[in-house]
Specification:
Blueprint lengths: L3 E6 L8 H20 L13 E7 L1 H12 L7 E4 L3 E5 H11 L3 H16 L7 H23 L5
Parallel strand pairs: 1-2, 2-4
Antiparallel strand pairs: 3-4
Helix pairs in contact: 1-4, 1-5, 3-4, 4-5
Length: 154
């Protein structure tokens, strides 16, 4: 797979080192390939993308996008658009990381992988789908965290 990944930090509420953006861009193509290996849809949107844009945003922006596109109030962790955009809520990631005793960078990685899996056709609306998606997600997160990112995303 040859997917151009552009990750931009569009917020200043919480620190996101530039090295994190670079690290995620560096693993993006391989991560997308792994997401396609466990694709829920054979002809998923991810299979047809040439470029993927990832926007890191604050709670205010996340809440606005969440309401505008999903009609759900409040900030959220990740929103994925099939045209090739993933919106990640950095403040949500920071709170969730603290709550679950995870490194903040690993939570950002988790949301990135979650978005890729949505683009591969996975859904998480019902408990069975969510369980399948989370199992694939955590396997991919563990792969990259152990392989190369634990020292870059802390």
């Amino acid at each position: 797979m040859s997917l151009e990944i552009i990750i931009g930090n569009h917020q200043s509420a919480v620190e996101v080192p530039l090295s994190w953006l670079t690290a995620l861009e560096d693993i993006g193509d391989e991560a997308a390939g792994l997401a396609l290996e466990v694709a829920a849809l054979e002809d998923s949107p991810l299979a047809h993308l040439a470029t993927l844009e990832v926007a890191l945003v604050d709670d205010e922006t996340s809440a606005r996008v969440h309401m505008d596109f999903m009609e759900i109030p409040g900030a959220t962790d990740v929103i994925t658009f099939h045209h090739g955009e993933i919106v990640i809520g950095t403040e949500v990631a920071q709170r969730q990381a603290k709550e679950y005793g995870e490194p903040y960078g690993r939570e950002i990685l988790r949301y990135f992988i979650h978005g890729l899996l949505h683009l591969a056709g996975h859904e998480d609306a019902d408990p069975g789908e969510r369980k399948t998606m989370e199992a694939a997600q955590e396997k991919i997160v563990a792969h990259f965290w152990t392989k190369c990112l634990s020292s870059k995303l802390v």
